[in-house]
Design goal:
Helix content is 82%, strand content 0%. It has 152 residues and is mostly helical.
């Protein structure tokens, strides 16, 4: 009977040792898990702070670009209303139309080039000799018909 008691006690001690070892292991694993969880929480909070700073910078840059865009719109509107700008725009439209006619209409190109050359020579003559003096007092007539333009 004593052997049984010693056997039981030996088994109980062995079970207690195994239980304590398992308990220590589980506590160690729980501590390691908590440590890793804290590490991940810190990494997440750092990343969120970095992303928040990036978003704030992007928002500030976006607002700055909106303001610049608004200023540029106002500048373009002001620039287009300065004296002479409308005439330059109209000349650009005329040049495009003349280029299209030159390409699309056979015969127009030669007539256009001749008229252009004559007009250029006449324009050059306006700075030389008596003609500029006379232009101040006598308006010149052209053979071209005047087309009344509608303002858009």
């Amino acid at each position: 009977m004593q052997d049984r008691i010693y056997g039981f006690l030996a088994g109980a001690v062995l079970a207690l040792v195994v239980f304590l070892v398992m308990k220590v292991k589980s506590m160690h694993q729980a501590a390691a898990g908590k440590k890793e969880l804290e590490k991940y929480r810190k990494m997440l909070s750092d990343r969120m702070e970095i992303e928040q700073e990036g978003i704030q910078k992007l928002k500030a840059e976006n607002e700055k670009l909106r303001q610049e865009n608004s200023n540029l719109k106002v500048s373009v509107q002001t620039w287009s209303q300065k004296p002479g700008r409308r005439e330059l725009q109209r000349l650009q439209v005329y040049q495009t139309a003349a280029d299209r006619l030159t390409i699309n209409s056979p015969g127009f190109g030669a007539a256009w080039q001749a008229a252009l050359k004559e007009s250029e020579e006449e324009f050059e003559q306006t700075y030389i000799g008596v003609q500029p003096f006379l232009r101040k007092f006598i308006p010149t007539k052209t053979d071209a018909t005047i087309i009344k333009e509608l303002d858009d």
